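All the exercises in this workshop are built on plain-text protein records. Sequence and backbone structure share a record, each on its own labelled line. The structure tokens are whole numbers drawn from a learned vocabulary of backbone shapes. The record below serves as our worked example for the rest of this section.
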Amino acid sequence: MKINSALPVMLLAVAATAAVAPSPPLQLVLKIPIHHVEGRIDHLSADVTGRRLFVAALENSTVEVLNLRTGDFQSIPDFDDPQGVRFVPELKKLFVASGGDGTCKIVDGVTLQIKRALKLGKDADNVRYDAATKKIYVGYGRGGLAVMDATSGNKTAEIPLDGHPESFQLETAGQRIFVNVPSSRKVAVIDRKKNQVVSNWRLSAEANYPMALDERSNRLFLGCRRPPSLLVLDTATGQLKTRITIDGDTDDIFYDALRRRIYVSCGTAFIDIIEQQSADQYRLIAKIPTASGARTSLFVPEMRRLFLAVPHRRKQRAEVWVYQVK
């Protein structure tokens, strides 16, 4: 038999090419089914120490608790369109905002029993926690943020807005809250010492729903659906610095400060990954195919994981997809 002497060289060349080929920024490592969940799935929160993931199963009227060690789910019932969830580890409490009955329910993080329901107003939505002051902020109604004492569960203040608040972000090095108000096509800037709006930034795109914040570079990232785009604003002035085209129907954005990346989950079946080259320079580096309607997600930097909620649609079953950050 004649041996092709060029073959080893060819194999070496292939191996060398494979060795230098860039790996995707996110690698799908697990799909966890949640067979009993139907309809749209909204936001997520994580218990890092306890290795649990809380999932607002909006149209299922439950909050699903995923044990990340075993893959098992436990359902917490008696919610009316749960939308926002936030687990506070130092208090061992889970705060759940429900759009249907306009409540924020406080759940014992150990027993998973509902301990209290605070009536806020229609369409209670996103939930944020200020660890420095131990305050919970909940967006709700035709325009307002409710402020709650996380320890007592009492409402302490209301901050009026001129439209329903979608995603909002709290500064850790300052006192401002940036709030997406899509009905007014703007970002409302709140002073949380005064509990009032101090500025409004008008936008050049519509349907601004998700938001992320880069405090180191003083940049605010807004996901807009019309047209599908990521807006980058200067947090000192509100000035638009740049715009990046993204896929459609986005509902969650996360900034990875360590890797200087932005993860954008889009209901048109993609996760867009944008690299931050400088404060005002960005480029799309990957489009990770996902599933139709999978637009809510959670990036947990301590776990190096991004969790994507995948709803049941036709032959597509309800699942949580787990990505490792590369």
Notes: The domain at 40-202 is CATH 2.130.10.10 (Methylamine Dehydrogenase; Chain H). Residues 1-21 have pLDDT under 50 and may be disordered.
